[in-house]
Amino acid sequence: MSRTPPEPSASVSGADAHYRALESLYDSAPINQLFRSALSIRAPGEARIDFTVEPQSFHAAGAAHGTLYFKMLDDASFYAANSLVSDRFLLTTAFNLHFTRPLREGPAFAEGRWISGKRRVFVADARIVDSSGEECARGTGTFLRSHIALAGLPGYRPR
């Protein structure tokens, strides 16, 4: 398994513009209006989403519902992988999730990192850490290069 990230499809300065455009794409997604969250991409194959767990995302026992775990883990790993692809939008084809502890109200973050894949299929993982520094979940996703051009998506634009 390869552990060296492929070079982004753009130059070094172009890579930074690509990261900012992906952050704008994240902000433009209607689903993200439901969550207080912010994506940051600082290096190829790495992404972080800072978010706030709020009571409206709780299940009946008073902790975050699994949909919040999945969304943040999928997004963090997706953007880690898509940071390496500057021409096409990736699609999640599979995702495996492991819950390790309840996620309570307050700040948390999901950090994703690319694991393998350089052409058509990418694998990335992510973990969620709560405000006390404890890991609450981890997951691994498989992402496929689609026919959807990033440049054609209205939210994909540098900030």
UniProtKB/TrEMBL annotation:
Domain Thioesterase intervals: 62-137
Sorted UniProt keywords: Hydrolase
Taxonomic superkingdom: Bacteria
Tagged with keyword Hydrolase: yes
InterPro entries named in the record: HotDog_dom_sf, PAAI_dom, Thioestr_dom
Pfam families: 4HBT
SUPFAM superfamilies to which the protein is assigned, alphabetical: Thioesterase/thiol ester dehydrase-isomerase
TM stretches of this protein: none
Name of the protein in its database record: Thioesterase domain-containing protein
Native organism taxonomy: Bacteria, Pseudomonadati, Pseudomonadota, Alphaproteobacteria, Sphingomonadales
